[in-house]
Write a structure and sequence with these properties.
single chain; Immunoglobulin-like; Rossmann fold; 3 domains; 6-stranded antiparallel sheet; 5-stranded antiparallel sheet; rod-shaped
Amino acid sequence: MLISLTVGKVDAGVAVLLTEDKRLVTPDNHPSHSERHESGSAILTSTPRKIEFPSILLPTDISCGSIVDINVSRNYAAENSAETAFANLQRTILHTFGLHTPKPPVLRCRNATQTSVVLEWDPIDLATAELRSLILYRNGSKAGAIPKPLEMQSTKISGLAVDTEYVFHLVLRTSAGTFSSERLHVRTHKMTELSGITITPGVMPAALRESLQKTAERIGAKVIDAVRIDTTHFVCTEGRGQAWERAVEMNVPVVVPDWVKGCEREGRIVGVRGYYLNADPRLRQVGAGHQPQQQQ
């Protein structure tokens, strides 16, 4: 659509274009000069006789009285391009943020003893969210925040009561919301339950190590090669080697193989004081009347 308009006034940045009646309406004599409507780049007053138009879009040689032709048409190609770009943006946002959300932690018990439990969980799945915190709760109360939750996947809780049930759960807080694991019920072992013993063997004669393995199998204990968070006792005859250093660093009790045999003989957990390396064997009290120490 082609429109011919007369330039009525040219100011810095704005030109006043008039319709065919050539009547210039100023703010002083306009019947409703305070009402304006925006349409595209042109600003229309409440009367159709005056149009304020950006002068930068007009030829540079115009002056008052010049007649300009303005061709107005709908740009379907630009509309389609804008609609396509907007739809693509919506799909990108949906697939980036809308389809995947953080998953609740999956909490498990790796091992339990008379006075401790080792909990583990799957790697934290944050999707596209940001991590706020990962907190462990025990019996409904906050037990503590997990340090480096994107790296750590296990923790050990010590100082628990013998033969007592505890309820644990993890709470993951992210920028996309809060997610809680299922409640995990764990009961610590009785003093006569030996399956929670997890042994890491150190330096000892081969025959003694073979005997240790058989004894552990008979009492239901586990033997693992490396010192881990769930290692309850480090068994050796000499205090040397990287594994021994690791056990000392982690405050894992370092005992001689006779401690395992003592547990088998007594049918219960026995105190470790008399079974430390270089400990006096006379401290190894045995018998039904002895109350063993609950050291794990």
